[in-house]
Amino acid sequence: MDSELFLGTKHLDLVTPDGIITDLKKNDDRSLEATVFINQISPLFVGYDIDPSRVFFNVKSTLAQLGVNGIGTQYQLDPKNGCAEVKVRLSAIGSVGLEMLKYIEVGAAIGRLFAADERRRVRDPDYLFRMFGRSDRWGKPLLSLGGLHGSDDLILDKVDGRTVAYLSLQNGRIEYAPTIIGFLPTLAKALKANISMREVLKLHQEWKPHLPRNIDNEELLLVRTLPLHIRTVFGHVAEELLSTGFHHTTASVLQPDTSASGDIYELYGKSKREITDIPLEFYTLEPYREHVYFSDRDQLQTCLEDTKVLFDAFKTAPEPIEHRTAVFVVKGQQLLNLKPEDWISREPRFQEFPKWGHGARQALMVERFIEQQPSYPFLKAIDDSRITSQGILLTRYFPSPFMKRMLLSDQVQRCLKGIYFQYASQSHREFFSAEDRALLHDLDKFAIPVFWVDESTNKILQFVQKPGYDSGLFVPIGKIETFLNSTVFGIYGSNLLEGDFEHELRDLLRGVIEMRIEMEHPLLEKDTPLALVTGGGPGAMEVGNRVARELNILSCANIVDFRAGPQAIVNEQRQNSYVDAKMTYRLDKLVERQAEFNLDFPIFLAGGIGTDFEYSLEEVRRKVGSVPSNPILLFGEPDYWRQKITSRFRLNNATGTIKGSEWITNCFYCIQNAKQGLRIYRDFFKGTLPIGKNGPVFEEGFCIVE
Questions:
Q1: Residues 296, 238: one domain?
Q2: How far is the C-alpha of 136 from the C-alpha of 144, rounded, in Å?
Q3: 451 near 418, Cβ under 8 Å?
Q4: Dihedral sign computed on CA atoms, order 277, 278, 279, 284
Q5: Are residue 431 and residue 392 in the same domain, yes or no?
Q6: Same domain, 537 and 389
Q7: Residues 6 or more apart from 367 whose CB is under 8 A from it?
């Protein structure tokens, strides 16, 4: 399906607009030959592409209820010009029909085409069963006979490989009051103006509950059921399943665009036996309009669990890669068979919004920018109820924060069950802005999951916020529970030096894993999973991520875009290949990145200015109480850390600028090997480590573990 084409039309693809009589000839007193011209047929009309014998004329129900049947005899479809010409034989049934036939004129709108596409026939009754008791956004039933929860009078069965509903008829029949004759000229005028008169027609109909539902030759029999609410499918009277001797007019299609239709059925023929029910077969709408819930799309959910399917789906997005592209997917077959024309593509347009003082102009520019986004037509169609099925949004680039208003709107939030993207940013590729991350948090709060189809890891990563924190990571789907329940260790250190601590770090973390068996601490007990976070770069960070992966510890990273700008004096950092879960940051948000490390147990190695900054942040966190007083390990010789820390601590202490927070020194422990670190951790988890506000003050600014 051409998405732009579909979203630009309100017409359902199995039907055409109403056709107008352009020529009319009298056959005899009971029939007319009409030439009907139908214009503005959607290019998506299925009738263009299927066996012509499956396309038939459907007369207006108003005419059929009066006893005028319309049978198409010749069909000429013109897909190039979006039109059709149909020869229709109009015949009278009963006395009212005979009278109405006299008033039908050129210019009257009398019916439309229906494409009974075999591929769209509902075959499994479960497809309809799951609609019972459900409603659309306005609270109207999706499918029921009677009220919201339906009626036992609606029986679904499988007949000849298709689903058939048998609608039980109510006792009696409908007949016309004498006033109907005087109303016919007005109704004929309404047909020329294409004004619906079905509700007005009911004023002239009288219910006769005691009359039998049999039929004599050349009579019209109007019967009724409970109101059939149908929003999810087309209904079609299965003529061949009607009781012997009964026929239905060609007003046999029930459209899914009315709140309650199908309560009156027009029959003719001859039978002494009473008819008891009306058999209906069903045809599905376009996938976007099926009102299908995401939880019911078994195939789609299976596809989304297959990494290859998602990567292959993105390969169908139109080139070039600089273009923004998006597509809304509602079923598995659609995902498996995506084509470039299914995507909406937009060329990149970079614009600078006006500064302060241009409020109205800026608002207009923002609105235009939003409308240029490829996801906009899909989200707007959801908001306008032209898309009613729940599904997922595939987008080459993570949606612009300007789309937040639409993404979090009531209706979109109900329909949008996942966002899948390839790149964080058009300009910065895999790095998110602060506004992007704010949008991620909002989407998480509104229960709209976000997935990164990540080429660098060849995995599907989901954005997950850890409980109690205002930050999150993109985590491999199979590792989410591990991440949510993990105790987090972290490595701070130089991107230039690996150092010689790898062996000791491995022993330290292995020792923590083994220690779990004997501990009953909130942060460490028998089943506690572990995670390790680094900056994701080379040097000490790479060592940390590599050791974590070796030990089956969730390997995480907060990665900054260190690509050097014209004025930068920063070493560009190659991302290491041992990262499983990650978040990315642009360089101008370095401070925010550091604030989002959220480590339970930081470990410091030799490092430069960046490491010094991280050390200070951990000090401040403990001073202000934003994190608990957990121990921090300083790997290396005491003399190194003395030069880093002691003089600063002693100067601050002497001047009184840290009065009351000197105790922070008892949170830092200098170690040279894993054995020393494990002793600190064991004492902490056992509750015997003197740490926190009531603990000792160490003169050198940290504790040297002997």
A1: no
A2: 12
A3: yes
A4: negative
A5: yes
A6: no
A7: none
Task: Say which residues have a Cβ less than 8 Å from residue 182's Cβ, sequence separation at least 6.
Answer: none
Buried b (16+ CB within 10 A) or exposed e, 624-644: eeeeebbbbbbbbebeebbeb
- Residue 405 to residue 439: CA distance in whole angstroms: 10
Alpha helices in 242-331 (DSSP H): 298-304, 307-315
Is residue 464 assigned to a domain? no
φ/ψ (deg, to 5) at 447? 60, 35
* Nearest-angstrom CA–CA distance, 547 and 555: 9
Please, what's the largest Cα pairwise distance for the chain?
Answer: 116
pTM over 0.90: no
Q: What distances in angstroms separate CA 646 from CA 35, 650, 680, 695, 700, one per listed residue?
A: 98, 6, 21, 19, 5
Closest CA to 703 of 672, 675, 667, 652: 667
Domain that holds residue 143: 3-285
Q: Coil, helix or strand for 678?
A: helix
Between CA 163 and CA 156 the distance in angstroms is: 7
Ordered alpha helix ranges (H), 457-533: 480-485, 502-515
On the question of pLDDT at 393 being above 60, the answer is yes
- Whether residue 524 contacts residue 511, with contact meaning beta carbons closer than 8 Å, is answered with no
Residue 175 has which token pair?
A: 């007949």
CA angle 256, 262, 265 (to 5 degrees): 145
Q: What is the pLDDT of residues 485-533, one digit of tens each?
A: 999 999 988 765 556 788 999 999 999 999 999 999 999 999 999 999 9
Cα torsion 186, 190, 192, 196 to 10°: value is -150
Residue 230 pairs in a beta bridge with 143, 258
CA torsion angle for 680, 681, 682, 684 (degrees, to 10)? 90
In which residue are the tokens 């995902």 written?
335
Q: Are strands 632-635 and 668-671 parallel, antiparallel or unpaired?
A: parallel
Of 147-161, 279-293, 583-597, give the lowest mean pLDDT range.
Answer: 583-597
Q: Where are the alpha helices (DSSP H) in 296-341?
A: 298-304, 307-315, 332-336
* CB contact at 8 A, 281 and 236: yes
The DSSP output letter for 644 is I
Residues 278 and 298 in one domain: no
Whether 703 and 665 have beta carbons less than 8 Å apart is answered as yes
Of 537, 545, 552, 556, nearest to 578 (Cα)? 545
In a domain, 311, yes or no: yes
What tens digit of pLDDT does each residue of 340-383 get?
999 999 887 666 655 655 567 777 878 888 889 999 999 999 99
Residue 259: closest CA among 116, 380, 151, 135: 135
DSSP secondary structure string for all residues of 160-190:
TTEEEEEEEPPSSEEEE-TTHHHHHHHHHHH
- SS3 for 654? helix
CB-CB neighbours of 78 under 10 Å = 12
Domain identity same for 523 and 538: yes
Segment holding 282, helix H or strand E: strand 277-284
List own/partner pairs for 309-317 with CB under 8 A and 24 or more apart.
Answer: 309/335, 309/336, 310/420, 310/453, 310/460, 311/453, 311/458, 313/338, 313/394, 314/394, 314/396, 314/422, 314/453, 316/340, 316/342, 316/343, 317/343, 317/345, 317/394, 317/396
Bond before 320 cis per omega within 30 degrees: yes
- For residue 115, which amino acid is it? A
How many Cβ atoms are within 10 Å of 418's Cβ, its own excluded? 19
What's the CATH code of the domain at 297? 3.40.140
Taking alpha carbons only, the member of 385, 521, 515, 533 closest to residue 466 is 533
pLDDT digits (tens, 9 = 90+) for 534-553: 988 888 889 999 999 999 99
E strand or H helix that includes residue 611:
helix 609-624
Distance CA 1, CA 344 (A): 11
